[in-house]
Design brief:
Blueprint (H helix, E strand, L loop, with lengths): L6 E5 L6 H7 L3 E5 L10 H17 L5 E4 L4 H14 L3 E3 L5 H10 L8 H11 L4 H4 L2 H13 L4 H13 L5 H8 L5 E2 L1 H15 L8 E2 L2 E2 L13 E9 L6 E7 L4 E10 L1 H9 L7 E6 L13 H10 L5 E3 L11 E6 L16 E5 L4 E4 L3 H6 L13 H8 L11
Parallel strand pairs: 1-2, 1-3, 3-4, 10-11, 11-12, 12-13
Antiparallel strand pairs: 5-8, 6-7, 8-9, 9-13, 10-14, 14-15
Helix pairs in contact: 1-5, 2-3, 3-8, 4-7, 4-10, 7-8, 7-9, 11-12
Length: 406
């Protein structure tokens, strides 16, 4: 008697041709219906919502594997969190955008040879590898280096931290503090010309040869790569007295940035100031209330990035929210502790002078220590009630710990 075809769950069924490809590969495509509505908030809240909804949907269906092809990082990492919880063998079709594609390939979820549908049909029959067999310190280090090299922003660090936590891999945040600053981001034109496999080859001995859904990682890579040119770099900066920390992303060659603070609670107020001509070249924008608790869910400041670009301003930004992907200038984001958790960023005021030393890894202000300690932090309104977002706010971890449920 012929055994039944293995069932492969595919979320976001309608927009893709993956169901037909899975059927042709000898497996049975099963649609996973996830709620279209999401609670209002940021990228981490959306990721956790997708993870919980996907876990429930998968648990209600007898699946042997998953094929993932979502369009944005919140969806793909939410689905990977669910896959890790359930131990379901998982393949990712190569997503759009080099940073996400490089990250998932280095993790081992994107096949370097063959079709994603063939790969998922194969692992659904063979029972693996499962996410727990792919996710470890080595693959996560690969993913971090690859994503940063491909031009990924600080959101990548947040989502990988959450995935590491879900997989039980300790020490990822400390790993990120070491590996991200020593990995320059590559010029997007170089990545577009040479592709993700060549980018991975360019990492050389820093890339670990880990198992993937289609064999060993280095087996599918070209033997040599031209030397890529750097464009941006990461730096972690810390306030020595309080231990507060932020992640800076800056163009190569920038070692320090300083300015007089313009403090805003919420992105909207900052955007209005920029578009109204109220921000000068010597200012430094401080945007509060956008972190995991304050956002809620870690808000991306895309509108502020767009407004600064439209105004032709390279004004640096410090925020407890998330810097936009591909933004120009210097952004210090994921400031932790965030303002909504009583962090010292909430004690900054208009006119304070703030200096970020990227090479020295420090944040300094010209305000005296006694005066600074005596200030009351600005009040950040929190999401109230008993819904999903309010429950998240009560339990949210800091951004550099993944900004998931604690």
């Amino acid at each position: 008697m012929t055994p039944p075809a293995p069932a492969v769950g595919i979320p976001f069924f309608e927009p893709s041709g993956h169901p037909d490809a899975v059927l042709a590969a000898g497996a049975e495509p099963v649609p996973l219906r996830l709620p279209k509505a999401r609670p209002a908030g940021g990228v981490a809240l959306a990721r956790e919502w997708v993870a919980d909804a996907a876990e429930i949907s998968c648990a209600d269906t007898d699946l042997q594997a998953l094929l993932l092809a979502p369009a944005d990082p919140e969806e793909i990492f939410g689905m990977l969190l669910a896959a890790a919880r359930l131990g379901l063998p998982t393949v990712c079709a190569a997503p759009p955008g080099a940073p996400l594609s490089a990250t998932l390939t280095a993790l081992g979820f994107v096949p370097l040879s063959g079709d994603a549908a063939d790969a998922v049909a194969g692992i659904s029959r063979g029972g693996g590898p499962r996410p727990g067999e792919l996710l470890d310190n080595f693959s996560l280090a690969n993913a971090l280096r690859a994503g940063v090299a491909a031009g990924g922003g600080p959101g990548l660090l947040v989502h990988l931290s959450a995935l590491a936590r879900e997989a039980g891999v300790a020490g990822f945040s400390q790993m990120a503090r070491v590996l991200a600053p020593e990995t320059p981001s590559t010029d997007p034109g170089w990545v577009a010309e040479h592709g993700v496999p060549t980018l991975l080859t360019s990492l050389g001995d820093a890339l670990h040869d880990v198992p993937t859904v289609s064999g060993r990682l280095k087996e599918g890579l070209p033997p040599a790569a031209p030397v890529p040119g750097g464009k941006h770099r990461f730096a972690f900066v810390r306030a020595r007295a309080s231990g507060a920390e932020a992640v800076c992303r800056a163009p190569d060659g920038v070692s320090e940035v300083a300015g007089g603070c313009r403090v805003f609670v919420g992105e909207g107020a900052a955007v209005r100031a920029v578009r109204g001509g109220g921000v000068g070249a010597d200012d430094l924008l401080v945007v509060l209330g956008c972190g995991p608790r304050g956002g809620p869910g870690l808000l991306g400041l895309d509108d502020l990035g767009a407004a600064l670009g439209e105004a032709g301003l390279g004004t640096p930004v410090v925020t407890d929210g998330l810097a936009p992907e591909g933004v120009a200038g210097v952004w210090a984001s994921l400031f932790s502790p965030e303002a909504a958790a009583g962090g010292v960023i909430g004690r900054l005021r208009d006119g304070d002078r703030l200096r970020l030393d990227l090479d020295g890894g420090s944040i300094r202000t010209d305000v005296g220590a006694d005066e600074f300690r005596s200030r009351e932090p600005l009040e950040i309104p929190l999401c109230a009630g008993g819904g999903y977002a309010a429950r998240y706010v009560r339990q949210a971890l800091p951004a550099l710990e993944g900004a998931g449920f604690g």
